[in-house]
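Fold sample X.
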Amino acid sequence: MENLIQIKENGINLVFKIAEDKTVSFLHCQKSEFNPGDIRENQEDWYRLVEVQLAGEDQDDHHGSKYTGTLPGRHLVFCDWKDTRNGRGRKLELSQRDERTGLFVTSHFQFTDGTSVLESWTTVVNQGVEPQGLTYVSSFALTGITKASMEDWDRAAALKVPSNTWYGEFQWKDYTLPELGLYKVFHYSTKRLSFSATGTWNSHEFLPMGYISCEDSGEGWYFSILHNGSWHWEVSDIKDALYLQLSGPAEAENHWFKWLEPEEAFESVHAAVAVTTRGFEDAVAEMTGYRRLCRRRNEDNEKLPVIFNDFMNCLGGDPTEEKEYPLIDAAAEIGCEYYTIDAGWYANGSWWSRVGEWEPSSKRFPHGLSKVLDYIRDKGMVPGLWLELEVMGIHCPIAAEKPDDWFFCRHGRRVIDHGRYQLDYRNPQVRQFAHEVVRRLVEEYGAGYIKMDYNINAGIGTELGADSAGDGLLLHNRAYLSWLDEVFLAYPKLIIENCGSGGMRINDALLSRHSIQSSSDQTEYTNYAAISAAAPAALTPEQNAVWSYPLTGADAEQTAFNMVNAMTMRIHQSGHLAKLSGENKELIREGIAYYKSYRELIKISFPFWPLGMPAFDHKQFALGFRNEVCAHLAVWNIESADGGMEIPLDGLEREISHIELVYPASLPCEYRYYRETGKLVVRQPEKSARLFKIDWK
């Protein structure tokens, strides 16, 4: 007899069907109620709960490169299901078994109370007598994205894809499926829209996230793959239905293969899916809440201290004792609370390929690094230092002393990328070495902040002690997260910034540990605005470090523009502060002072974009953050000579009592709020930015 399992939790409706032959279908994951009539006849068999691919087990549909019709996925039959609660909320487990191979597959669905977000993953246990070679395991598989639509799936669906690159992070783009080359041409096609990343820089082309929606029904799914290494997701059609599949590494895309011995278990990468009927901004709000609830609790995200870093448009990796003192004085004067010495503090000369010992340079700091760090503390700030602790330069004196199992190796040789070896955190000796470096900097030098940079991509992985290069990479990625957990357990107040040449490793796995993320290395402040304004769609504002780097000789508008870029999130101050004019120093001091007056609200605020998602080719855009107390709205005019903007605020669904320009107070800006139309009309100069406060009635 057929059986429906229907779950309603946190605004999400899940429906699973157990057929008479015990096959399991995943029919529904939406806010709306389930309507059986939305699924066409003979389609349910293709609403598969999970896809698992084995070596030697071919697929059973006309799939092309798609992960549909997998075997043993096709042969899995229902065993049991569990409905329990834990510290996060309700949890479902649906178990299936392939009698031919002995694979026991469990699909996990974790709700988080307070959000309409579902966390999903798969475990596979080999209960057979022969080893089985895994090549693909889905973390989340949902078919029927457009099942409630009257339109064909290629017209009904839309995608938001977050492109990401060095100097150009967080660029979300809207697409119809035909715009990406996916059309309904038959009952199903061999075309797919696939997005992947391979390696340790897992956001160097795209963020491991996205958003898919059914335009006429209003249903939308914001998804994030919760992993710091290789990942894959795809959208395509099967039997006239549109599907979404999320996973960690796969063999074809990411060189991942794993032998599963009898009684051995494998757990897939986790994925999170926010469900909405109210559009992208609502989905972002749900995911923002989820991120806040699931990350490591830490003081940094509560207090949001102002950080100075000496790198960007400042010392640029060439610090010396002489250069630091005037910067320290100036940073303290304008109100900074942390002061970080960036790259180069450990090097007597050229350092790129020699990093790895992490001992202070006597040439750069002839009186000792400790003296400078003590001076920072004397000025009332917490000192910080730059590290790149996952690599070792090929010319580092100790690199030759270490055995090969300290490093990634392929084809019998150490992997070299950009003059560095990749350290393998599966090795307990590597983790101990890294622990000792952190201990020395924290306990002997008193560092309270570490900028953990990462400037290579180690490629497909390592073959040492692994079934495949991708297997070695996955195990290393997980070992590195475990090492981070150990560091924060030992030093709970230590701030470790996640950086990868700016934003080349932005993902929710690392950000569940790190309290702060470097958003970009972009050096042009007008280009940075589009990065800063789009970033809150991918991470919480209290974790997003945005550079403010006024240039020497900058005018007041340039300085204020830099400040507004950072003021709604985390101020990452830089620039040659000691060389700035008094007016510019005062503008920075004014911005930091206002930031401190409202920063406690940032951690409870949610983003909105009244002019749409910003991009590099946009001339004007705006980013707001709202909470129960008030809202703040940053407005940028890049190139419009007259500076006129009409900004709709009626979507805030709150009655506005007052709007005030709060920064910069002294620079020209005309504005008026028209209550009858719900629009804020602003006129400001070209290449300018302004910050407004919106009060509720």
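Fold sample Y, listed below.
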Amino acid sequence: MTEVEKKNNRPRRSQTKELPRVGKISGPRQSGEKSAPKPAPQRRQTRNGQGGVQTRTNQGGAQNRQNQGGQTGRQRRPQGRQQSAQQERQNLGLGTAPMTAAAQRAQQQIAARGAAAAQPKRGRGRPRKSQKPPVKVYFLGGLNEIGKNFTLYECQGDMVIVDCGLAFPDEEMLGVDLVIPDFTFVEKNREKIRGVVITHGHEDHIGAVPYLLKKLNVPVYGTALTIGLIESKLKEHNLTASAKLKVTPPGSHIKLGCFEVEFIHVNHSIADSVALALHTPAGVLVHTGDFKIDCTPEEGEMIDLCRFAELGKEGVLALLMDSTNAERPGYTQTEQTVNNSLDALFMRAEGKRIIVATFASSISRVQMIINCAVKYGRKVALSGRSMVNVMGIASELGYLDIPDGVLVDLNLINRYEPGQLVLITTGSQGEPMSALTRMAFSDHRQVAIGPGDFIILSARPIPGNEKTVGAVVDELLKQGCTVIYESMYEVHVSGHACQEELKLIHGLVKPRFFIPVHGEQKHLQKHAGLAMAMGMDRKDIFIGDIGNVLELHEDHMKQLAEVPAGSVMVDGLGVGDVGSVVLRDRKHLAEDGLIVAVCSIESETGHVAAGPDIVSRGFVYVRENEPLMEEARRVVYRALEDCANHRVRDWSDMKQSVKDELSKFLYRKTQRNPMILPIIMEV
């Protein structure tokens, strides 16, 4: 190569220094002209299918993309770089003629600089940290338990409550009727509460609303059926006049402070169920509520998967999803399965009286039963207070279609032959006071069961209720009834999504963070595993507990200090007056019984004036244990006399002495520890 050729092939540094560093050139800049500042693109991070993080640029959303001919920014960048290269060739005086080797190298350098300009800049040009505010999530119920769902969201000083449900007492809560969330934290922040939003009308989501409204009267939003069921509950508590109930259909948006809450239609075991999309300055949070994906629902349309997909494309900060069936593989069966099974069972039960036990809230299930009754020429009677109330509300609102002449009063069922009747009743969970339980134990005033009854349990036992349900089934079988339950026949399908349905929602929503809710620890852990299988990082998943507080920001997720939370027990009209001490005493009484020691002492000397008398309740039968009771009297007498001799006149000390001595004696004789109640009177 000659010296001239080497000189021609050398890069022209003086000209390439002033080349623009952007991919697209609008034209040459005149001297003294200032370029307009280019708006910084908004960047958000989304999860890719392999668990990594992609940075996507939003230049104005879908509308802008349509205005630009449907091209995405990724599609436009190569065109811009091509135009830039062409302009540079002109600036270099290369024109459009075939390029020399030097021109080719210059073009390659220009293209490399354009590609480098398209990459995120580091160092001095690094984008600033996001200025979006955080959003806080307070988990006040529904975690590590079945029921009592109660979640609080806060952003920029505004708070929104999602669901307010109850739980049913377990076998350790003797005498307790209901369990509701602890409202202490909510009461302290009453000025910030903008409203309560309810996902659906099941008891574990609406049951505690009356107790909440007694503490603070805030608006309650829900679909038509949900509000109808809440209104029925408020009538029992005399709260209908003051309550602010707002009917909000699926697809609606409501403004609650800085929150914009969107109602999304989903499938569940009760009509009018919705998921929620909470649009906040911090980002979008999706709260699914209870749901499943049913392509052939018995009523209404299938779940609005399109809206979940749209939210996923727009970007979702966090997803809080139902975990009830996270351990179950596959898909939840459609309600049509139950419909076919009921039809076959009605045909099989020809000539027998059919009794179907199901949840009072399962309106679609009741509609199936009514349809089968009409098909086979049977009359229908309802049993159970909650069943009658819910069906009345559902019929009034148009969610239940009962042909004229089909429904008969329960008091008139004896006028019909067994083969002409269908009884729809409560008691599918073996509740002690439910209609089916009273039938099984021959304690029902209107219904006496026997060998001519064909009984269908169209429900799955809630975890913890298996024992009580089994006891009721055993009693029904002893009465000679034919009993059909889920493990024998497909008479029930779950209203909750199984693993493949959960994965589908994960794939559509693509959340930045994930929080499994609505389930026990095993369900939450399993659901977290499903999310990781979908590509999420474990650090972006939070498994919480009641009282936990979580701060969510597009750059981070962190746990904050806990807040007061827990359970409040309702016993009759008393709310919160039954605590751990009372339950401990009730358990003690239930297990070992009670001993009451009554005596009188002289006011001046402290010596025993009369007695002591021993009363036994739940410990031993006194008449059959006179020697034991007589010896117990002597023990109490000696304890009181010893106090008198030592000049012990404090009432608490005297009673404690009697309890100690009598407790030691009874345990030595019986190996039992009854509750001992000393009663000392001064004369």
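Sample Y note: The longest helix spans residues 626-645.
Also: Residues 1-86, 88-98, 120-125 have pLDDT under 50 and may be disordered.
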